[in-house]
Amino acid sequence: MFKNTVIFATVLMVAFSVTGCNSAPAEQTKNHPNPLLLISIDGFINEYIERNNTPNFGRFLTDAVHAEYLIPAFPTKTFPTHWTVVTGLHTENHGIISNSFYDYELEARFSFGPPDESPNDERWWGGEPIWITAEKQGLTAATFFWPGSEATINGVQSTKWVDYDGSIPDSTRIDSVMAWMNPEGDVRADFGTLYFSFVDSRGHSYGPNSPEVDQAVIEMDGLLGYLLDSIEENNLGGLINVILTSDHGMAELSDDKIIFLDDMIDLNDVDMVDWTPVAMIKPHDGRTDEIYNAIKAHEENFRVYLRDELPERFHFRNHYRIPEIIMIADVGYTITSRPFFEQRGIPAGNHGFDNLAPEMLTFFAANGPDFRTGERSAAFESVHIYELMAYLLNLNPAPNDGSLEEVRMLLQEY
Ligand code: AMP
Ligand code: ZN
Ligand code: ZN
């Protein structure tokens, strides 16, 4: 508990030292970029490799720069956080406000699960992801999964992209991206992505401290070994820059940590844009103050805010999709209704909480010719990764909220 408080204070200091919006082009120093591979292991944290035997992570980290931790975007859900990494935009500026949310202008719900399948309608996605910046400036991108990679952005897509299908084996994803990035192959992609979901899924089903998650971490270590061998086999050894990162952590939930919203308000008086652990509430008929006051009267194990009073550090006010009232559950708590809870229960683990909560902090390490070697770096916010990638690929970044200066310490020539 005390340790967590200290980490939390450090995180606050890091977050507040971050400079503001910067859309100036990064300083360009290289003529031809080294290929860059961006990998996400969903729901992965440093502690997972500290408490397990992971020789291939060891192999990767020996020559890598490894951040103390990465501060994800808010809310710490898969789609907003991944989209911040590839656009350099805070959530309020890219508009992917959760994994599932209703848009009153489009009169539609954004949702990645069946029956909606991949959300490939470009009206949802604000900003320019790095693979589009790359394609527009003459490079070749190959994305074997990344949230948003199936959508066209201003009519452009990666040269190689694949509709999301979680059943495609992880080794097949690696084989394809490596073949596409092989400098002696047909595609010779300059930029690639890979995405692995099973550590996160295991965390939801069994909780972050379970033997099942440990088993998933060991499987992930084997997969990383397979990738590192494949890099050599595909003529990329010593050439490729690899960013190995994640989108958020994972917190243990509990049946006795439930916040019943229907005990505080009549759910018929509101629309729920999203539920938990960040409840996004749109009151009917301008009844915002009345509904807010009713929830505020029960403010225990969560915080409730009017949208315009949300702490600035969440960067979660200024988008029309964000409704008037926002509740944020304390870590480990679930916001639900009695009927839903009785029917469906809750998973063992979840994320989405405050992005500075220690449990939500996540993993970042990078290895390759342009990165420093064998060092720990200070923590930083994921919003800067887009500027870093644009610099590594010798691209002029699209306007964004990140700053290369915040991540320059990762680079070799720093
Ligand atoms: P979460 O519910 O936030 O834990 O999200 C993780 C889940 O997102 C994964 O298990 C996948 O089912 C899903 N997912 C990840 N990437 C995509 C994608 N590009 N398209 C559709 N679903 C995805
Ligand atoms: Zn995730
Ligand atoms: Zn998840």
Which second-level CATH architecture of the largest domain applies? 3-Layer(aba) Sandwich
Sheet bearing the most strands, described? 8 strands, mixed
Instruction: Count the DSSP helices.
Output: 12
Please give the CATH class of the largest domain.
Alpha Beta
Bound molecules: adenosine monophosphate, zinc ion
Rounded average pLDDT: 92
Instruction: Characterize the overall form.
Output: globular
Number of strands: 20
Output the radius of gyration: 21 Å
Summarize the structure.
The protein has 414 residues and is an alpha/beta fold. The protein is built from twelve helices and 20 strands.
Any descriptors?
Alkaline Phosphatase, subunit A; single chain; 414 residues; binds zinc ion; 12 helices; alpha/beta; 29% helix; eight-stranded mixed beta sheet; disordered N terminus; binds adenosine monophosphate; Gyrase A, domain 2
Report on this model:
With 414 residues, this protein is an alpha/beta fold. It folds into two domains: 2-252 and 356-410, Alkaline Phosphatase, subunit A, CATH 3.40.720.10; 258-346, Gyrase A, domain 2. The chain has twelve helices and 20 strands. It has helices at residues 2-17, 46-50, 55-62, 78-87, 91-94, 130-136, 170-181, 198-206, 211-233, 288-296, 338-344, 385-392; strands spanning 36-41, 64-67, 70-71, 100-103, 108-111, 141-144, 160-161, 191-196, 241-245, 251-252, 258-260, 270-274, 278-283, 302-306, 325-329, 334-336, 349-350, 364-367, 375-377, 380-381. The strands form six sheets. An eight-stranded mixed sheet has the order 7-6-8-1-9-18-2-19, with helices on both faces. The protein has a four-stranded antiparallel sheet with strand order 12-13-15-14, with helices on one face. It has a two-stranded parallel sheet with strand order 3-20. Strand 12 and strand 13 (278-283) form a beta hairpin. The protein binds adenosine monophosphate and zinc ion (ZN) (2 copies). Residues 43, 78, 200, 204, 351 line the site of one zinc ion (ZN). One zinc ion (ZN) binds at residues 43, 78, 200, 204, 351.
